[in-house]
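User: Modeling request: complex.
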Amino acid sequence: MNDVTARKRGRPRRTESADTRDLILTAAREEFSERGYEKTSVRGIAKAAGVDSALVHHYFGTKEQVFEAAIEVAAAPALGAPDAVAEGPLEGVGERLTRYIFGVWENPATRTPLLAIVRSAVNNETAAAVFRRIVASQLLRRIAAQVDLPDAELRAELAAAQLVGTAMLRYVIKVEPLASADVEQIIARVAPVVQGHLTNP
Amino acid sequence: MNDVTARKRGRPRRTESADTRDLILTAAREEFSERGYEKTSVRGIAKAAGVDSALVHHYFGTKEQVFEAAIEVAAAPALGAPDAVAEGPLEGVGERLTRYIFGVWENPATRTPLLAIVRSAVNNETAAAVFRRIVASQLLRRIAAQVDLPDAELRAELAAAQLVGTAMLRYVIKVEPLASADVEQIIARVAPVVQGHLTNP
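Assistant: Request completed. Predicted assembly structure:
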C-alpha cells in the first residue's frame, strides 16, 4: 500500500468516525429528551443510531458519559455564551446575560433540548450532577471570575436563580401573565435584578 | 330503627369515610412521589391504600383530580402561608415571604412532598396545569392583591421566580456554594429582591 492509498483510505475513515459520533449524539439527545435519563439505555441509544452498543461504549464510555457529551452539545447555545456576554464590562452584564438567556429560551430550536436537560436534571441525581458540573464550569465560574468581590460565586448563582426561576415559570409551568408577557417587559424587570446580584455592594 | 341507633350507625360511618379518604391521599402522595405523575395509576393508588379502585374514583374522580387533592395537601405548608405572611404590611413582605418559603424548604418533612410536586410538574403537562392553578390561586393572587400597581400579578410571579430558582439550584440541582451556604445569608440577599419586584416603582 503506497502513501496515497493510505491517505485516501485514512481520510474517509476519520470522517466516518466523526459522523458516527454525531449520529450517536443525536440519537442520545432524542432518547434522553423523550424518555428522561433513567429510562434511557445505551442499548436503546445504539438501536436508535443504528449501531452496535459496543460502539457507543467505545466512543463515550458509560451512560453518564454519553449523557454528559449529549448535554454539552445541547446546552452549548445556553451555556457557551459568547465571551462578549460573560466577559464584557461589568456595567451592563445583567442586561447582556438576561437578553442572551431569554434569546436561547425564546428560540424553539434551542429551547427543546434545554427543556430535556432541565427535566432530566430535576428527576435524576446523576443527571443533576452532570448539569451542575457543566453549568458551574461553563457559565457561573466565568461570570464569577469577572466579579471582584469575596462571594462572587454565590452572587453568580443567585443571579442564575432569578433567570432559572423565570424560565421555569414562563416556559415549563407556564404561569400567566408571565407566560404570555412580552419578552422585552420581562428583560426590563429581570436584568436589573441580575445586575444587582452581581455588583451591588 | 330508632333515632339513637341511626345516630350510632351514622357516626362511625362518617369517621370511616374520612379515614379512607386520608388513606387514599397518603397512598396517592407516595405513589406520585415515587413514580411521578405519568407512571402512577388509580389502580396502583388503590392497591397501595388497600382499597378498591372504584372507591378512589368515588371519592376523587379522575387521576388528575386525585393528584390535585394530593398536592393541595402536600403543598399546604408551602402555599397556604399564614395570612400574616402574604397579607401583612407591604414593607417587609419580601422578608416575611422569603423567610417563610425557605422555612418550608429547610424542613425535610415539608421539603420531600414539595420536591415530588415540582418533579411531577416539570415532567408532565397535566401536573403542571394543576400546580399552576394551585400556586396561582393560593399564593400569587393573594400577594398580588396586596400590591396596588397595574402589573401586580407579573410582579408577584417574578418575585416567585427568584424564590423558585433559588430553591431549584440549592435543593434540587445542589450547586455550590449555594447548596451549603447559611440560609440566613441567602435570605439576606433574596428578601430585598423579592421586595423590589413587589414594590419598586
